[in-house]
Amino acid sequence: TALRVLDLSRCRVGDDGVIALAGASHLSRLEDLRLERCCVSDTGASALARSRSLASLATLDLGGNEIGRAGVAAFGRSTSLP
Fold first, then answer.
1. Secondary structure in 3-state letters for the chain
2. At a CB cut-off of 8 Å and minimum separation 6, what does 12 contact?
3. Which of 9, 18, 44, 80 gives a 20 to 30 Å CA spacing to 64?
4. CA 81 – CA 11 distance, rounded (Å)
5. Is 3 left (phi over 0), alpha (psi -120 to 50) or beta?
């Protein structure tokens, strides 16, 4: 629970990995999550946007992924992320 920064850039985490991260309650104090070029699509982005476990995030890097309009819209509707 002390983890504040997690950089998984270029690790090919994919949607399944991002969905697992989004549901990980032990990441509740995470402030900086970097998922650049991790093969994330709208599915993973939507899971992140709904995550209650990541409410402390100040920085989220999703550059270089396959996120389209649906994923961006999910962040716009998010009430979970700051």
1. CCCCEEECCCCCCHHHHHHHHHCCHHHCCCCEEECCCCCCEHHHHHHHHHCCCCCCCCEEECCCCECCHHHHHHHHHCCCCC
2. 38, 39
3. 80
4. 23
5. beta
Name the average pLDDT for the chain. Answer: 95
pLDDT, one tens digit per residue, over 44-75 is 999 999 999 999 999 999 999 999 999 999 99
Residues whose CB falls within 8 Å of the CB of residue 2, separated by 6 or more in sequence, listed in order:
29
Q: What is the pLDDT of residue 80?
A: 86
Q: What are phi and psi of 78, to 5 degrees?
A: -60, 130
| Cβ partners under 8 Å of residue 53, min gap 6 | 22, 23, 24, 25, 27, 28
pLDDT of residue 1: 66
